[in-house]
Write a structure and sequence with these properties.
single chain, 150 residues, mainly beta, nine-stranded antiparallel β-sheet, two-stranded antiparallel sheet, 10% helix, globular
Length: 150
């Protein structure tokens, strides 16, 4: 029987550990582009090509609106918008801890580099008291995010 216990994951942006994450999928790392392309032609001949954009990733972060992490990310966003040419690209790390139930831990890490904000965070008001209005969602994109498992 294989067991996987997860918890105490760590998300860092520019060395800062984010601690004020919201509910649900508070951090999601996705790779929207394919790594390889294949074209098949006449007689079944196939051409394979590595797609460098397949290394790009998007990181969606759900943080508590107005909290210290929201303020930190908002300040970085303001720096980027104020002078994009002068902005220092963001670095990040997403560490997922996986235990085997016998006291052994494996760390599944993604090291993010070349990051910028993809868009502004949105806001809403809800008269029914929906909790989403207390969450800020940031979408960041990174040029590279190699994965290691230790």
């Amino acid at each position: 029987m294989i067991v996987a216990l997860t918890g105490k994951d760590t998300i860092k942006i520019n060395g800062r550990i984010l601690n004020q994450l919201a509910d649900g999928d508070c951090a999601v790392l996705t790779f929207p582009n394919d790594l390889m392309n294949i074209k098949t032609g006449k007689s079944g001949n196939s051409i394979y090509a590595f797609n460098y954009t397949g290394q790009q990733c998007e990181l969606s972060l759900r943080v508590i609106r107005g909290g210290a992490d929201d303020q930190y990310l908002n300040n970085l966003l303001a720096l980027m918008k104020n002078n994009p040419a002068l902005f220092s690209l963001m670095q990040g790390e997403f560490d997922k801890n996986v235990g085997d139930g016998n006291g052994n831990l494996t760390v599944d890490s993604y090291i993010l580099s070349g990051g910028v904000f993809k868009k502004n965070p949105e806001v809403k008001e809800n008269a029914d008291g929906e909790s989403e209005q207390a969450v800020t969602i940031y979408t960041l994109i990174f040029s590279n995010a190699p994965r290691t498992i230790n």
